[in-house]
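Write out the 3D structure for:
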Amino acid sequence: DIDEKSIQVLKSLLKKYKIPENCKINYIVDDFLLHEFDVQYDYIIGNPPFYKMKSKDKLLSIYRTKAINKNTTNICSFFLDKAIKLGSYVSLVFPKFILNTPEFKDSRKYISEKSVECIIDFGEKGFPGVLVETIAIFISNCKSPGKTKVISITQDIEMIQKQKYIFDDKLPYWIIYRNDLFDDVC
């Protein structure tokens, strides 16, 4: 985190839990996107900020240099790209618009080659008082694409989908609730 106080709060919270001996937590106060990591991580879990950077922001061109998706100005995309490069398993809270906006086309293509094990759709219930629809996406760099569990918190739905089916290249977007009715209409 870039905020030392947030790290201190985290340390205080973690004192209430028994952290397994085989779990090592590295506390780093720095800009995640600029920090040079010298190791790969087993797990990267996070809730990156969601906002579009201004084209005049000096950091935008720096963040884009190592990004997979160079067609967006949304900072969360840069977090996603770096997390996938650094972690064997990545779990991020993300704006739901990753599923269907043109600016995330390159991100979807890149992620579809990974194993997306689960997508939890929180709708607008992810954060009380925040009207941004969010999802949690669980990505494994250790497996080939297979099946994806899709969970809707708002609709109380849980389903298992073939990843290639819901991330179909013939469609412009990911259709996580795709079914026979959708296919008939399509």
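The chain has a mean pLDDT of 94.
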